[in-house]
Amino acid sequence: MSNRPFALNLTVLAGMILAVALTRLIPHPPNFSPVETMALFGGAYFARRGLAVLVPLAALFVSDLALGLMMGGEYFQYFVSAGFLLVYATIAVLALMGFGLRGRVSAARVAGYGTAGSLLFFAVTNFGSWLGSALYPQTAAGLAAAYVAGLPFLGNGLLGTLFYSLLLFGGYELLKQRLPALRAQAV
Asked: Which of 76, 156, 164, 166 is close enough to 31 for a disulfide, judged by CB 3.0 to 4.6 Å?
């Protein structure tokens, strides 16, 4: 049995995820990002759980490194923060969440999972902004203030997730129609 369909599928899926991760390097509205979608897409299409989690995390890390090189040393401080760990842990959870889309990808399901993923990302990362922060008091009122401060970015996060969902999920479904080898073997 040939491994060609496996290699093609792996290359296409990983390439698509990396390509959208690198769109973080071009100017865009704050939080209009492919991050949540990359994780859901990986979970939906990689049959191997390790790849489903690892590929989106690796693509995120590559784009974070590139952003650090572009923005300078202060961005690299992010890599040693609790926020970094929470973002990456949330992406891993979203990849696992994407397993619920396996074999059941539809526009409505992807939109629902994307919305839930964006809300989860918002909840976790804004909690991380509050936790141990000198900016917000470590009280319930301080936590509420952190969430209120994040609200202006939530809309862009949702729109970005929906846009990149259309791009990744829709693009892959179109590719599968044109390249039957992509349907032949799960990765």
From this structure: 156
